[in-house]
Structure formats: C-alpha cells, structure tokens
Amino acid sequence: MPMLLWLLLLILSEQMDYNGTRASVPKGVAPKAVLLLDPPWSTAFKGEKVTLTCRGISQSPARGDTFWYRDEKPWKIQHNAIQIRESGNYQCKTLGSSLSDAVHVEFSHDSLILQASHPVFEGDNVTLRCQGKENENAREKVYYKDGKQLPNSYNLDFITVNSVSRDNSKYHCTATCTILSIVSIKRNSKRLNIQVQELFLHPVLRVSSSTPIEGSPMTLICETQLSPQRPKVQLQFSFFRDSQTLGSGWSTSPELQIPAMWTEDSGFYWCETETVTHNIKKRSLTSQIRVQRVPVSNVNLEIQPTGGQLIEGENMVLICSVAQGSGTVTFSWHKEGRVRSLGRKTQRSLLAELHVLMVKESDAGRYYCAADNVHGPILSRWIQVTVRIPVSHPILTFRAPRVQALVGDLLELHCESLRGSPPILYRFYHEDVTLGNSSATSGGGASFNLSLTAEHSGNYSCDADNGLGAQHSHGVSLRVTVPVSRPILTLRAPGAQAVVGDLLELHCESLRGSFPILYWFYHEDDTLGKSSAHSGGGASFNLSLTTEHSGNYSCEADNGLGAQRSEVVTFSVTGTSRNRTGLTTAGVTGLVLSILSLAAAAAALLHYARAQRKPGGLSATGTSSHSPSECQEPSSSRPSRIDLQEPTHSKPLAPVELEPMYSNVNPGDSNLIYSHIWSIQHTKENSANCPTMHQEHKELTVLYSELKKKYPDDSAGEDCSRGRAHEDDEENYENVPRALLASDH
Asked: Where is the composition biased (Polar residues) (predicted)?
C-alpha cells in the first residue's frame, strides 16, 4: 500500500512539473531542486550525522511534502530537511521543480579522510580539508591530485583548488597521526572524486523553421538554464553554420535574427554558450536547415518615361519585375531585331532596372524582358518605344558689309540649329533683351537685321525651340566702332594772362568715338606731342611757357577710322615772368628801390644819348634813326608785344641808334605806374635795309614797364584788402603801346 501511494504522488508531481509553472528555458523542463548539506562536507566519519535540505525554485525551503531519493530509488516522503547516517547518493524533488542533482555522502570508518566543500559548480574554487579522528592528532598533511602532490600544500589544514571542472580527477591526502601521544603512524586517505555540479545546462538550438522559404526571415534561439544557486552568472551566445560564425560573434542575447534566408544558407547549424569569464563553454547539437525556392511568375516590363515616348538625348529606364519568385533572379532585356540581349542582371530582388543613356533615333522599336531563377525564363509582353529629335544648340553668326562693324552698317544676325524637327522658332537677344523672333519651317535657320548704332555693341545670342525644349546658343560679342567727333581744344593757364614760366595745359577731347583715341597737339602746325586715351575725358599736354609759345594751337583725334582736327586757338604770352614771392616780401622798400633804380637807369641812358648825338641820329620828335645795316624784325608769334628778356631783333641795336625817352603814365588805374623806357621809330631807310620787316610794323613801338604804386595810408586792414584786390596788378609787368596810353589819358 505505501508503494502504491508513492507511485501515485510521483505521477502527479511529474504532471505538475510539465503543466505547471516552469522556467523559460529549456522548454518542457522544470527547474531543478537544490540539495544542501550541513555541515557542508560530502565525507564524514562513521557515526556522525549530516542534515539534507531540499530547496525549490525560489531557493526557499520547499512547501508541502518533499520526495527523497536514495541511490536513484524513492526513499521517503517527508518535509524539506532530513538527517542521514548512511552512505549513498541522495536526491530530492518538490512540487514545481524537477529532480535535483545527486549528492554522494560518504560515512567513512577510516582514521584519515579528505573532505571537499559542497556544493561545487563548474569553474568554482573548492576547499579540501584533510581530517583525522578526534582521538588522533594528524600532522604533516600533504595533498595530492591524481597521485601528484599539489604545489604549496605541505602541512596545511586545508587548501583551495581553483576553477574545478567536471572531470574524473582523484584527490587524496597523507598525514602523520599520533596515537595516545606515543605512536606516530603515517596514514593515507581514500581517493575522492569532487562532485562538481553543472553551472548551466547544455544549450539546445531552436529554429523558427527547418525548411524556410527563400527570402523569408529566420530566428535562431540558443536555450540553456543556469543553476538556481548561481542566478547572477552572465552567459554569452554564438551561432554557427558549417563552421562559419553567424552575425557579429559572441552576444549576450540568446537569439539571432536572420532577415532573409537563401538557398546558399542551407546547412548544419548549432550554437555555443559560455560564461563571460570564458572558463566554461558548452555546445549544442547540430540541426539541419534546408531553404526552399519559389519559381518566378507574372513577368512585367515597364518603360520610363511612361508610355515609351522619348526625346532624343533623354535617358530611358527599362524596369523588369516579377510578381512571385524567391532567391537569386536573373533578369535580361531584349529589343526586336537584335540577337543579343541589351543587358543582364542577377540579384536577389523581384525587380531590376536597365538604364539606356542618351537614346537615339535608332533606339526606337519593340522591347521585352525575361526573368529566371533556375526554373526556366519567363517572358514579359512587348512594349513599343518611339524617339523624337529635339533641336540642337543653335549657332549665331554675324553678316556685315565689312570686317569692322561701323555705325550705320546693316548687320544680319543668323541663327541656325543643325538638327531638330521643324518648325523651329528662333529668338534673337542683345544683352538678354529680346530683339525679335523668326520661324523656320525647314532647314537653313532664320535671320534678323539691325541698322547699327553705337548702342548696339555688346553680347548677342539666340535660341531655338521646336516644342521639345529650347536650346540657347553661345554668346557672340559685337563691337560697333564709332569714328571720333571733331575734338575741342582747351588751354588751361594759372592766371587770366599767361606769362613766361607758367605751366600751360593743352586739353583735347572728342565727345564721341570708340577707344582708344590718339590725340596730337600742334603749335603753328608743328607737332608738340601726342597722348592716348583709353577712356573718356580726352588727353592733355603740358608746356612750360617761353616767349616763343605765343601763336596758334590746335589738336587732332584719331581712333583708326579717320582723324578729326580741332579749331585753331590763338594764345599769347607776356614777356615778363611772375615773381609772387619777391613782390610780396619786398613791400614798400622794394617799390621805392625799383623806382630809384629805373630813374638812375633812365638818367644814364639820356646822358649817353646826348653825348653821342650826331646829325642823322635821333630827331627832335624822339624817333630813332638806324644805319642801313641795322634793323629789327618783330616776332611773328607776338605781333603786338615785345619781350624785354628775349628781344625779337636779329642783331643787337647799336647804342648810338637809341633815343631813350622816360616818362611815367597811368592808364586809368590809380594803383599802377607805367615807365616809358625807350621807343624805336621804323623809317623808310631802315625798312629798306631790312627786307624782312613787314609794312604793318612801321608804326612807333614803345616799351613800358608796369610798377607797383605805394599807398600812403597803408593800414593793416586796408593793405591786406588792397593787396588781395590788386594781386594780379602787382605781379604783372606789361608792355603797353604808347598810343594806348595816350588814349587812356
């Protein structure tokens, strides 16, 4: 009767294990129960007691009845803890847990035993203790493994063996025992096989399908279970196919996702599990996986642009697709009339594209495609492709009556596209501004005429359009050359009256004309110099004036299209040079000294003249007579003035021929004094002796000098004001004809 009750409870327990609460991995296996020893040694002396405790899933004492096994046979049904005195292999089991690992407990009659700590798991460090009976004093203890002494193990009560494994190593110890404190005997313990428990179960490989469809995903799971007594141990996993590592190698995840399986992925798979410390590694059994292939079907050809209507030069895309099919598919494209295919692609896809770049008129025709994944090619339907020709880039040319376009010329702009379907509309542009358009219904292009002005210089272009896209020509540059206009000559001097030593600027400018312009400067038809202008504003030429620079000036402008000459400008130079600094700083003292000097010079000349006077000399009226060999020729460039510093006569006048006459005159300005130095009377006799003397110069020539007049009441303010008002009068010493002075008075 007790045996029947035991069997009934055992059957109910097994059903609970299978249908009740179970660990997640492996599937269908409940977590093992844990058997603990107290004291924690698997070997004891005969007569001692050992307490066995059975723990369930939560590592807490099992609730309810606990099933105890001895030597793999049902033994007792009691609470979770029992005491034993007999040697044997003990196991336990609780509701909700599977059978624990067997623990061998040895009760020895020997006087010397070797004890190992319990529990011990793979990779753990284990403690070994060599123990004698209470009435024997054991000393000089030595520990051995497989008959070899362990290093550093002499005369120790216990030692530690690092990282043990589930192998068949045998351990024992020796010691010298003293009996009754008189007799010493050397004893050996029995061989001990350390009971090492599994840290985790051998992994099991689980696959989502052993015959997946090609292209479908696959999930691999490496299942194992840690010992409930070592729940914090970290594991890592790796998956293999035919000795090839899958994924990124070792990972803490027990799952591997494969996005798509292909026929070449068929083979033998397994997984491995190891601790992160790499000291324990276990491998699963292999599983064979065969990937299934699906034949292609419903092959279709699509052309872009949609409808197969293309323009020459565009890119065409031929898209071949299949509705069904798996694995590697080979696509090919074909054109009617061609033996060889246009292209071929093999790829893992239900769609493939073939690009035809820059289609030509010869690419028009009928097309189809084919697809094959080893089960035979499947063809698509035919599609018609047409190709139209757009206009090419037009060429713009100029047609003018001469090489260099001039203002007033009639210019023809001709635009032509060498290829393109007519009619073609041509548009003409000047600096991106539309000039006009013209349509051509056949080849030859179109033209547009312009009557050129100066504003027509610039960049020209044209475009052509036949409805398939406009094309623009390259820009063509046109330069309309404008002849120079008649230049204007301007003379620029420092003051109103130019004197010797002044810097005269001759400025010549044509208001119209294409650059560069070359300007020439002339004095009495003699070339002075030239200057080139590359932009507006004309050109200048500078002269440092002398008495010879009086006369007629002109300039000429030329830009290669015909020179133009300016009008003549007459210019005169006063004989006395400017000296602002001397007159300003001399003051009143300088004026008085000048007057005294002139008076002294005049007196000397008068005395000399009287001493040398002879019959035939100066007349009583003050006109001078000259010997036949003496004459004076006036300057052609200054007919009305004579320079004191540079006389214009060809020979010096003999002193006996001069009759100085001195007088001060005031030509209407109270601030100026004119001193009459000398006069020369041209008579018929000396004119006959000088054939170069002209008739218009027969009048009396009188030479004067302009002097500054002193102001009696020269206060500070009046002097400054008067000095500024008469600045030019103080510095200009002029030669004034005597007749003019007489009329002024």
From this structure: 620-639
168 and 133, same structural domain? yes
Q: Indicate the burial class of 743 (C-beta count within 10 angstroms; 0-12, 13-18, 19 or more).
A: exposed
Instruction: Tell me if 620 is assigned to some domain.
Output: no
Kindly tell me if the per-residue pLDDT of 125 is higher than 70.
yes
Q: What is the DSSP letter of 594?
A: H
- With 0-12 / 13-18 / 19 or more C-beta atoms within 10 angstroms meaning exposed / middle / buried, residue 609 is buried
Residue in 121, 126, 211 with CA at minimum distance from that of residue 171? 126
Tell me whether residue 215 is in a domain: yes
Helix (H) or strand (E) holding 717: helix 716-725
pLDDT at residue 10 above 80? Answer: no
For 571-612, the pLDDT digits (tens) are 888 876 665 434 433 344 445 455 666 666 566 555 544 544
Count of the separate structural domains present in the chain: 5
Cα 72–Cα 73–Cα 74 angle in degrees, nearest 5: 130
Confidence at 94, pLDDT banded by 50, 70, 90: confident
What is the rounded distance in angstroms from the CA atom of residue 418 to the CA atom of residue 410?
25
C-beta of residue 210 within 8 angstroms of C-beta of residue 289: yes
Asked, for residue 118, whether it belongs to a domain, the answer is yes
CATH number of the domain enclosing 119:
2.60.40.10
Check whether residue 321 and residue 400 sit in a common domain.
Answer: no
Coil, strand or helix: which one is 628?
A: coil
Domain shared by 173 and 40, yes or no: yes
The lowest-confidence range among 20-24, 29-33, 479-483, 680-684 is 20-24
pLDDT at position 595 is 64
| Host domain of residue 327 | 304-386
Residue carrying structure tokens 């299978």: 18
Q: Are residues 52 and 186 in the same domain?
A: yes
For the chain, what's the residue count? 745
C-alpha distance across the termini of the chain, in Å: 180
Residues 132 and 74 in one domain: yes
At 227, is the secondary structure helix, strand, or coil? coil
Greatest extent of the chain over all pairs of C-alpha atoms, in Å: 200
Residue 220, domain member (yes or no): yes
The torsion region of residue 728 among left (phi > 0), alpha (psi -120 to 50) and beta comes to alpha
CA 396, CA 404: separation in Å to the nearest integer?
17
3-state secondary structure 472-496: ECCCEEECCECCCCCCEEEEECCCC
- Interstrand relation of 196-197 and 120-121 (parallel, antiparallel or unpaired): parallel
**Token pair for 21:** 């609460």
In this structure, the answer to whether residues 320 and 456 fall within a common structural domain is no
Is the predicted pLDDT of residue 337 greater than 50, yes or no? yes
Q: Name the domain boundary from 229, 260, 289.
A: 289
Which of 550, 571, 592 is the endpoint of a domain? Answer: 571
Number of C-beta neighbours around residue 135 at 10 A? 9
Region 82-86: what's the mean pLDDT? 92
In percent, the amount of the chain with pLDDT more than 70 equals: 72
Better-predicted residue by pLDDT, 53 or 604: 53
pLDDT score for 311: 87
Question: What are the C-alpha distances in Å from 689 to residues 395, 618, 686, 698, 729?
Answer: 82, 18, 5, 13, 40
Q: Tell me: the pLDDT tens digits for 500-556?
A: 989 999 999 999 888 899 999 999 989 999 999 988 889 999 999 998 899 999 999
Spatial distance between the Cα atoms of 700 and 659, rounded to a whole number of angstroms: 13
Helices (H), 364-501: none
pLDDT band at 229 (very low <50, low <70, confident <90, very high): confident
Tokens of 529: 């110099």
State the Cα–Cα distance between residues 728 and 429, nearest whole angstrom: 62
CB burial readout 87-101, b (16+ within 10 A) else e = bbebbbbbbbbbbbb
Rg (CA), the chain: 67
